[in-house]
Amino acid sequence: MTHPTLLSVLKRIKQRSTDSRQQYLALCNQMQTEKPARGNVSCTNLAHSYAAAEPDEKNLLRQTQRSPNLAIVTAYNDMLSAHQPYYRYPEKLKAYALKQGATAQVAGGTPAMCDGVTQGQPGMELSLFSRDVIALATGIALSHNTFDGGLYLGICDKIVPGLLMGALAFGHLPGIFIPSGPMHSGISNEDKGKVRVAFAEGKVDATVLLDSEEQSYHSAGTCTFYGTANSNQMLLEMMGLQLPGSAFVAPNSALRDALTEEAVRLLVKSTLKQNAGLGYIVEAENLLNGVIGLLATGGSTNHTLHLLAIGQACGWHLTWQDIAELSDIIPLVTRLYPNGAADVNAFHDNGGTPAVIATLWEQELVFTDINTAYGLPFSAARCVPMLTDQKQLSWKNTSLISKDSSVFREASNPFNPTGGVKLLTGNLGEAIIKVSALSPQLGNTITAQAIVFDSQEQILEQYSAGKLNQDFIAVLPHQGPASIGMPELHKLTPPLTSLQNKGYKVALITDGRMSGASGKFPAAIHLTPEAAKGGIIGKIQTGDTITLNWHDDQLNLEVDEDRLNARAISQPHPASATLGRSLFKNARNNVSPANQGASFIL
């Protein structure tokens, strides 16, 4: 049996998505073929497509009736520590494919910006839009129409959602995502956070801060806190699009190589089969499993945007209300930084996503009968990979792994009976709040006067000048997707956390975003409608009283309607055209609201 709330949400999504899903599947059906796709192109086209291939590859590529050809779409660059290990992956993938009688070619690359570098910088205004650019780049890579499956190499924040959205535009093609793994643990995330707060308070200088950051971000691999990048990896396993337990295996290890080879082997088996493409795989149940995993692990709020956009890319209309309804029944079963002290290496040691799936399965809180990109029943997703003494890939049920109760708990005895991400509603509109990292000592509501700011820099300036030593709710409008691209405002975490640590009641309301690594103070984010679209957040004035209640899921401005109607929307600072921002004017003009995925291509 499946929990009745899951079934009711599923039914609602399927009903509202009937026409769009049928239209999407009709496109997939139109693109399907029973023989290698390159057999449909001319000899001139074909010769161009493998002119630079090695002789053994050419011999296979000439055989247009049987040997599948896999597209490698890579987001490699060596500035992102998470993506640096992908440097040698194409060579490995080609060799693994040849062992299966198939070929693999690098079809194209996508951009891959690092939010960790652009936090608080002008480039952050391009971050969310980079997701849709990646989707477009993936589409261009696959447009040569000589491929029978896709190998997608991506880890970080907007990159995995963008790759998946692009792959779903070619939903007739089977595909699988291949991770590269996290870096080994450095200093604890808790200690790193303390140094950041100390720097914000002027207690340590920039040299101490940089030393701390270098000890945290110190080698190749994904950053080890549970932000958007690692939430991506959890989602892919929850949705059946990545090999079970593969997300957090260390880079450049024998087990990592074995998993990568297995992913290629299983993908080759799926090629040239009818209805085996990713578009057919990602049913509403798969998408909702992603939501369930997000809630059960206290994952990144960014996915309240990405999951909506991914759903739209294959005909499913997921809403924030759906997420909120699931949040009422999905328990929080992990404590990972910033929701706890543990990092993703500790999560992996406690069974990782397979353990989450297993405990939710026992409580009928996950969809169990779903298709997977690797062609195995979803029951396999409850197992973690290991190598035998003979160096063969094997699988171990997570029930056999001892668990640290400070990191992982069973769904029958969770850290919290409800999910980590909630929907706020009220006269200001709709907003998202992450509650899994909030201390119980904060209570569950704050009523305070607003202080309206023009920018996050203004908040930092007033904090440094000692002007914010009081209870208040910071209001930061004109940060939404149609205004400046909806940047993350993670730079505000240290000063507002510092004020909260001093005993002041503080909160943030914004139509911008916070990082997946945030959540120590109450933050109503993604507020829709945004100020640029006439949202009431643009009418809030300093001194207004606001109530933010995350127990009853309410967000209200305590100003009477007549006074509010008489006010004009505040004017934003003129948008800057520097550092590439001028290139995204059309994106800002055409982007959908946050509660529809904040996309300019869907």
TrEMBL record:
Residues 407-598 form the Dihydroxy-acid/6-phosphogluconate dehydratase C-terminal domain. One of its GO terms (molecular function) is 4 iron, 4 sulfur cluster binding. GO terms for biological process: D-gluconate metabolic process; Entner-Doudoroff pathway through 6-phosphogluconate. One of its GO terms (cellular component) is cytosol. Keywords: 4Fe-4S, Carbohydrate metabolism, Gluconate utilization, Iron, Iron-sulfur, Lyase, Metal-binding. NCBIfam families: edd. PANTHER family: D-XYLONATE DEHYDRATASE, PHOSPHOGLUCONATE DEHYDRATASE. Belongs to the IlvD/Edd family. This is Phosphogluconate dehydratase. It comes from Ketobacter alkanivorans. The lineage of its organism: Bacteria, Pseudomonadati, Pseudomonadota, Gammaproteobacteria, Pseudomonadales.
